Design the sequence.
């Protein structure tokens, strides 16, 4: 036991004789471990931001988009802005009646100028059915949303996103007031709670009007741009998707065996799974690239340990002359390498955690829903790899020191 403690003390003494050189030697390990920790944490934070955005919309939602996908399974042309008119309000109402459907919303979106008093602002508006709030879990902050009867009758009513309320009515109550959209007058009946931006859009900066009103008065169309359906349970999504497909194929006169659907069905749960698998792969790839600096750091340790052996040749010879065994000499130099990589790994972990925390703080300050994620596994693996590098890259210099001839070592100048 005493012999082991002596070897450890000698190893620490060898390192701290030249602190700056030891620190520079450890720098590669510090950067490598810190980079791996930061990449894994920041990647997890970015993943949480986007998955949280998807989950805000709901993983039990099914979207029906006009137009069939391409032969490779890609999205339909409507996803890139091309107007396709194959979906109708009647299709949406038929899908709403399917089993396991809790709510439905159909959209007809557009853009134009909104005017109140002497203020005119370019806005996005959404013509929607009365099920919008139920499908998107978007609550009313003031007033109310329009009813199905008002939606069917083409009532000129408007519900503001919270940013639109702040834009036009920062200090007053908008309920009951009239706002003009594309030179058409609408009575404001409600204001939605702040929802925040999602992958799809930002409902906070939109104005919502009844679907029939949007189609007939604002856009002059008869089709809908997208239908979203809320399924009662996530495990029923696949079953509902098949029912939707069968219903729309029948309504659109698509014969059995014909693969050319004029609609595309997508689910957020599948998109979420694909996204997670892709981002996990990217994180691991970037972490592997960052880990290259650990190898560079290991080469630096080998180099510095060889220099240390050369500089301390007489010391090694003297220790052997007074009874130190080759094993003790080898252990001393391996311990020096282990201490350097262990300290470097610890400093890298601290640096990576601090950097990741700062990124999370800044992201949250900028109103991003960013999670600070540090997994114990990442810390344990990073530290273990740094120690392993100390062993692997410290063995050769340690063996060289252990096999020095004591007589030749004492004569070395």
Sequence:
């Amino acid at each position: 036991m005493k012999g082991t403690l002596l070897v450890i003390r000698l190893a620490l003494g060898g390192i701290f004789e030249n602190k700056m050189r030891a620190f520079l030697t450890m720098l590669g390990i510090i950067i490598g471990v810190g980079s791996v920790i930061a990449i894994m944490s920041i990647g997890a934070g970015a993943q949480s931001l986007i998955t949280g955005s998807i989950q805000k919309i709901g993983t039990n939602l099914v979207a029906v988009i006009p137009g069939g996908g391409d032969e490779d399974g890609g999205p339909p042309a409507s996803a890139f802005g091309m107007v396709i008119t194959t979906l109708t309000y009647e299709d949406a109402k038929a899908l709403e009646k399917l089993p396991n459907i809790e709510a439905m919303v159909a959209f007809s979106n557009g853009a134009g100028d909104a005017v109140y008093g002497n203020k005119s602002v370019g806005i996005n508006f959404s013509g929607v059915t009365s099920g919008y709030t139920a499908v998107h879990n978007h609550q009313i902050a003031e007033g109310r949303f329009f009813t199905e009867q008002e939606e069917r009758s083409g009532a000129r009513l408007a519900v503001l996103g919270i940013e639109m309320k702040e834009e036009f009515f920062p200090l007053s109550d908008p309920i009951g007031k009239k706002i003009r959209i594309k030179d058409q007058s609408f009575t404001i009946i409600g204001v939605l709670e702040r929802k925040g931006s999602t992958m799809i859009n930002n409902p906070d900066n939109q104005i919502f009007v009844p679907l029939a009103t949007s189609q007939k008065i604002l856009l002059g169309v008869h089709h809908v741009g997208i239908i979203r359906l809320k399924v009662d349970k996530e495990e029923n999504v696949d079953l509902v998707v098949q029912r939707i497909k069968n219903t729309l194929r029948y309504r659109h006169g698509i014969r059995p065996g014909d693969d050319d659907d004029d609609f595309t069905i997508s689910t957020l749960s599948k998109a979420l799974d694909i996204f997670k698998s892709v981002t996990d792969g990217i994180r691991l790839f970037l972490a592997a690239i960052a880990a290259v600096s650990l190898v560079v750091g290991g080469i630096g340790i080998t180099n510095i340990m060889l220099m240390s052996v050369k500089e301390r040749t007489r010391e090694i010879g003297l220790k052997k002359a007074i009874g130190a065994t080759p094993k003790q000499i080898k252990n001393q130099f391996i311990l020096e390498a282990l201490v350097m990589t262990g300290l470097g790994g610890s400093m890298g972990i601290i640096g990576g955690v601090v950097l990741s925390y700062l990124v999370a703080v800044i992201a949250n300050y900028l109103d991003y829903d960013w999670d600070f994620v540090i997994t114990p596994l990442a810390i344990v693996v990073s530290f273990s790899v740094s120690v392993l590098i100390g062993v692997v890259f410290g063995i050769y210099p340690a063996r060289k020191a252990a096999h020095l001839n004591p007589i030749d070592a004492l004569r070395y100048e």
